[in-house]
């Protein structure tokens, strides 16, 4: 199955190719295959796939990447709008249900 | 049941000073997953961070699986005295919380990001700590989506419980006969209508997610909602043997079921692995008002249909 992609042209990801040193760290940490190396520079190859997890920005040694980090979760947005504290929500991969309810983090997913 | 593992250094097999070091969260399933993936006779060290019993990805988002905790745990476990090399293998999904450079600066250990799935670790190690491209991508297959459905249903049904008394009470006023029999008969039909909406939003939408038209989850949720509304009305009018729904009630269901389904589908964004916060906010800006309007109008029509 092809990669699932959310809305177009909305993410806050920015790459300053001028300061990029070509270490390829961003391509290693991104779980969505957003970056690509082109020559000695990184390039945003698939911007719309970005989920704003922030792994790239935190691990870019040159500070060439910036992104407004957040979790793409409507329930969390609603909860915080209603002033509920349990704004936690996460995409749970292989760990599934028991982990979520057991983790002691209330409204998580 | 205890889902936590005590943080600290664990030996896997018979590790020595040259064995690789794997970083994990103190969520039992993260830990077990790592252990079973390496269960092909390998030895190594597992350094468990204190993430409050939360898995790597969620903890990294919160920052509990992060630079600070990793650097501290390397220090407090005395890892530098246990192994000769200076490399730790951190799960890639921990990267949102970990700055490889900071960790190296503070602990002297180089961070190498392992694959997204622990199951790929043996291949990753055999390739000399190189990840094949596919190992770097977090997927969201049908099985993974469906495993999240039960929790979503429980959430939705919990919210439904609040409306139930009103629905059943109001149903009692339908028709001319006995209050109680109407409350039960018309009320249970209406409850089934709402359950249909939950099925559409919480089960069918996640199942068909990649194939439903539209990018916004709310939009994806509308289609199963429409189909389920039609199905429900068919069952209600033809198979149930109730007097058929009038125009008002029909219209009410056509509004309410897709709207509720859209709302529940929208809430599935948090369970998915491909939505961004910016995107979700953009979607909610138009979707939430539309959902509220549709449900409100639907509720008014439904109540009106009872009293006219
Ligand atoms: S991590 Fe930063 S410096 Fe390295 S390739 Fe990516 S953008 Fe360039
Ligand atoms: S924020 Fe996350 S998903 Fe987006 S480009 Fe960076 S690493 Fe990839």
Q: Which sequence of strands runs across the widest sheet of chain A? A: 1-4
C-alpha Rg of chain A, in Å?
16 Å
Structural shape of chain B: elongated
Residue share in β-strands of chain A:
5-15%
Overall domain count of chain A: 2
Low-pLDDT segments, ≥5 res of chain A: 87-109
Whole-number average pLDDT of chain B?
92
Query: Percent range for helical residues of chain B?
Result: 55-70%
Number of helices, counting only DSSP H or I runs of 4 residues or more of chain B: 12
Features:
heterodimer; A: 109 residues; Alpha-Beta Plaits; 2 domains; disordered C terminus; B: 308 residues; mainly alpha; Rossmann fold; two-stranded parallel ribbon; 58% helix; binds iron/sulfur cluster
Overview of the structural elements:
The complex is a heterodimer of chains A (109) and B (308). With 109 residues, chain A is α+β, with helices and mostly antiparallel strands. Chain A folds into two domains: 53 residues, Alpha-Beta Plaits, CATH 3.30.70.20; 30 residues, no CATH class. Helices cover 23% and strands 11% of the residues of chain A. Chain A has four helices and four strands, in the order βαββαβαα. In chain A, the strands form two sheets. A two-stranded antiparallel ribbon of chain A has the order 1-4. Chain A is elongated, with a radius of gyration of 16 Å. The C terminus of chain A is likely disordered. With 308 residues, chain B is mainly alpha-helical. Chain B folds into two domains: 129 residues, Rossmann fold (3-Layer(aba) Sandwich), CATH 3.40.50; 166 residues, no CATH class. In chain B, the strands form two sheets. Chain B has a three-stranded mixed sheet, sandwiched between helices. In chain B, α3 runs parallel beside α5, α9 packs across α10 and α10 runs antiparallel to α11. At the A-B interface, α1, α2, α3 and α4 of A face α1, α2 and α12 of B. The complex binds iron/sulfur cluster (2 copies).
């Amino acid at each position: 199955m092809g990669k699932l992609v959310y809305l177009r042209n909305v993410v806050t990801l920015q790459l300053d190719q001028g300061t990029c040193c070509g270490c390829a760290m961003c391509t290693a940490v991104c779980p969505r295959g957003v970056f690509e190396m082109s020559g000695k520079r990184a390039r945003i190859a698939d911007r719309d796939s970005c989920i704003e997890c922030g792994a790239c920005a935190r691990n870019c040694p040159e500070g060439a990447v910036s992104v407004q980090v957040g979790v793409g979760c409507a329930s969390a947005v609603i909860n915080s709008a209603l002033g509920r504290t349990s704004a936690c929500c996460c995409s749970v991969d292989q760990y599934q249900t028991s982990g979520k309810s057991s983790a002691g983090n209330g409204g998580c997913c | 049941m205890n889902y936590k593992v005590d943080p600290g250094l664990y030996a896997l097999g018979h590790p020595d000073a040259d064995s690789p070091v794997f970083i994990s969260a103190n969520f039992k399933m993260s830990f077990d997953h790592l252990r079973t993936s390496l269960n092909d006779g390998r030895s190594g060290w597992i350094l468990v961070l204190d993430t409050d019993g939360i898995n790597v990805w969620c903890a990294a988002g919160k920052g509990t699986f992060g630079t600070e905790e990793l650097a501290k745990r390397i220090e407090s476990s005395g890892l530098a005295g246990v192994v000769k090399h200076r490399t730790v293998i951190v799960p890639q999904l921990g990267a949102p919380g970990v700055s490889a450079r900071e960790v190296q600066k503070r602990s002297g250990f180089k961070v190498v990001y392992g694959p997204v799935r622990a199951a790929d670790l043996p291949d990753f190690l055999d390739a000399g700590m190189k990840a094949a491209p596919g190992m770097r991508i977090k997927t969201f297959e049908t099985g993974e989506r469906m495993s999240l459905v039960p929790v979503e249903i429980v959430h939705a049904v919990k919210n439904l419980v609040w409306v139930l008394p009103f629905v059943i009470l109001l149903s009692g006023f339908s028709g001319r006969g006995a209050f109680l029999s109407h409350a039960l008969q018309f009320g249970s039909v209406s409850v089934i209508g709402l359950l249909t909406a939950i099925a559409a939003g919480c089960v069918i939408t996640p199942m068909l997610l990649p194939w439903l038209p539209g990018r916004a989850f709310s939009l994806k949720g509308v289609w199963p909602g429409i189909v389920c509304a039609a199905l429900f009305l068919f069952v209600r009018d033809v198979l149930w043997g109730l007097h058929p729904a009038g125009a008002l009630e029909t219209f009410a269901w056509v509004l309410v079921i897709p709207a509720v389904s859209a709302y529940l589908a929208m809430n599935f964004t948090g369970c998915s692995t491909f939505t961004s916060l910016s995107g979700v906010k953009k979607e909610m800006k138009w979707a939430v008002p539309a959902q509220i309007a549709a449900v409100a109008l639907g509720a008014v029509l439904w109540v009106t249909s009872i009293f006219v």
